[in-house]
Design brief:
Elements lengths: L12 H5 L24 H12 L6 H10 L1 E4 L9 H14 L11 H5 L1 E4 L6 H7 L2 H11 L4 E11 L6 E5 L11 E7 L11 E3 L15 H14 L3 E2 L9 E5 L3 E4 L8 E10 L11 H10 L15 E3 L13
Antiparallel strand pairs: 1-8, 2-3, 3-10, 3-11, 4-9, 5-8, 5-10, 6-7, 6-9
Helix pairs in contact: 2-6
The structure holds 2-oxoglutaric acid (AKG).
């Protein structure tokens, strides 16, 4: 998912004036330096940094599954014993920057789905290390079958206790990018039990590409619910996850999440990548204009998608090339 637009969504051109509470967008913030948050200093988090630079052992079956289904679940992409400093930094940064103040019952379907805070990597050095991690970016590149990937943006997605469904949708609907080599890493920062809102995917739908002009809403939920049934698509739903497990899904993957019926906040961090070499497309869908501005500095169609907010994260620099480690 990304900056979103449309009648029931916050990030259309209207949203340039009226932003959704609970969001931070990069044109409002600088890109943070290492000193951005001394509370999460390098010393504090050094123990966990090693894991981020080591290679995850991705099997050929996992790659095949991703390409066939449009999504794949990777146990312990970040070993649970390494996650603590990152969870602390992500949660603190997200909570500090969330602007959502309305009680759940006053929000629409989209607003009830989760708190959504963007590009935390620009706000905190520890989060930057997580989002730029070679371990994650290399997996993204291998699943996509490309030499290099750039960062599109990150977002914390916290489904609150009592939070509602995430309606069926396709992320790439919003992205003005001339490639289908796009992918999202979705990682729980806490253990997720069955009633907390794990992701569900309509397997294989990514191969259909763009399906319909529906933003994330009650309308998209109803449309795709019928669509999935009519097409006979299998719904894949991993029931639970440990902190540090992760799924990757394609930009055109069709996905949703059930409500959080538990008393625990479902804290998830996501990172979106695209193939290096991608160019900007004409944002024919109005929804893509917000993304063009937010993540791609309003570059013209045909320009390389490569602003300072889209660094190459794989291949990584020499200090990030770690030895092979267990998955
Ligand atoms: O976390 C959720 O509920 C939805 C996530 C999602 O749609 C995405 O990461 O693309």
């Amino acid at each position: 998912m990304t900056v979103r637009h449309g009648d029931s969504l916050p990030w259309n051109k209207r949203d340039r004036e009226r932003k959704r509470p609970g969001t931070v967008v990069p044109w409002e913030v600088g890109v943070a330096g290492p000193e951005a948050n001394p509370a999460h200093s390098e010393a504090k988090c050094r123990a966990g940094y090693g894991a981020l630079s080591r290679t995850y052992r991705l099997s050929s079956q996992q790659i095949e599954r991703y390409r066939r289904d449009g999504h794949v679940f990777l146990p312990q992409l970040l070993p649970a014993d390494s996650i603590r400093p990152y969870r602390e930094a992500i949660v603190a940064t997200a909570d500090r920057n969330s602007r959502e103040t309305r009680p759940l019952e006053e929000r629409d379907t989209y607003g009830k789905a989760f708190l959504q805070i963007f590009n935390l990597w620009t706000l905190d050095e520890t989060v930057r290390r997580f989002v730029h991690a070679a371990r994650f970016a290399q997996v993204a590149a291998r699943l996509l079958g490309v030499e290099g990937v750039r960062l599109y943006h990150d977002q914390a997605l916290f489904k609150e206790p009592g939070g509602g469904i995430t309606p069926w949708h396709q992320d790439q609907h919003y992205w003005p990018l001339d490639t289908d080599r796009t992918i999202t890493l979705w990682m729980p920062l806490v253990d997720i039990e069955e009633d907390m809102g794990m992701m569900q995917f309509a397997s294989g739908a990514h191969r259909l590409g763009y399906i319909t002009n529906k933003g994330i809403s009650d309308d998209s939920e109803a449309f795709y619910e019928r669509f999935v049934a009519d097409q006979g698509l299998d719904i894949s739903a991993t029931r639970t996850a440990r902190a540090g497990d992760a799924s990757f899904h394609a930009g055109w993957a069709l996905h949703r999440a059930p409500p959080n019926r538990s008393s625990v906040r479902r804290e998830v961090m996501t990172v979106i990548y695209f193939a290096d070499g991608t160019r900007i497309t004409d944002p024919v869908r109005p929804e893509a204009r917000g993304d063009l501005r937010a993540w791609l500095q309003d570059l013209p169609p045909g320009a390389p998608a490569a602003t300072r907010l889209n660094p190459v994260v794989w291949p990584a620099g020499p200090d990030h090339l770690g030895e092979d480690s267990g998955g």
